[in-house]
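Need residues for this backbone.
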């Protein structure tokens, strides 16, 4: 039988990962959507009136760790975003963010796509540093 690592899931990382624990129901979350591959839930520290995240249920550290076999689930996350954003109260667009690694200031190392929105336009994207 293939080990977790051979299947692309690092069992050690997954055991301690906050988002894997949310997937397993060990940490409560306010669920937005769930299917066999994907979970969406509200961010615990929202930075916009609508702020939830879409994650693959499989533990993948970041967008810098995805492989070709993840194309389908990542594509599905993008396809779901507009329907969920609308349902959550962002009727006319939204912003998606995937922070990646040290440069992207990623805090939780389980790949996730933030969806931000609300009734009014969001602030500008990031401040110019120069
Ligand atoms: P990152 O900076 O890695 O892109 O974003 C991680 C996000 O996860 C942060 O916005 C943070 O508020 C959120 N977060 C961290 N721990 C938890 C948690 O236990 N539950 C929920 N719902 N969100 C969390
Ligand atoms: Zn995880």
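Answer:
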């Amino acid at each position: 039988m293939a080990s977790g690592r051979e299947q692309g899931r690092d069992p050690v990382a997954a055991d301690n990962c906050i988002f894997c624990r949310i997937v397993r129901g060990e940490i409560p979350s306010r669920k937005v959507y769930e299917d066999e591959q994907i979970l969406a839930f509200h961010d615990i520290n929202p930075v916009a009136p609508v702020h939830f995240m879409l994650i693959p249920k499989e533990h993948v550290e970041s967008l810098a760790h995805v492989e070709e076999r993840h194309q389908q689930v990542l594509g599905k996350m993008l396809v779901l975003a507009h329907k969920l954003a609308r349902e959550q109260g962002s009727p006319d667009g939204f912003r998606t963010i995937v922070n990646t690694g040290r440069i992207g200031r990623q805090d939780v190392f389980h790949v996730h796509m933030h969806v931000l929105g609300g009734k009014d336009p969001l602030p500008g994207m990031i401040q110019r540093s120069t």
